Amino acid sequence: MSSTIKASSPFFAFIVPWLQLIKGVLCIPIALSAGFGYILYTRTINGTLVLLTLAMFLLACGSAALNSLQERKIDRLYQRTSHRPLVTGQLSPAMVIPFLGSLIAVAFLLLLTIDATARTLLLGILGVIIYNGLYTPLKHRTSLSLLIGGLAGSLPPVIGWCAAGGSIADYRIAAIATFFYLWQVPHFFLILLVHKNDYIRVDHPNLAVALSENKLRRITWIWIFAYASVGLIISSLPGFLTIFSRCSTGTIALLTVGLLSFHLVLRPSPSHYSRLFQVLNISFFFNISLIAILEIL
Question: Quick check: pTM over 0.85?
Answer without folding.
Answer: yes
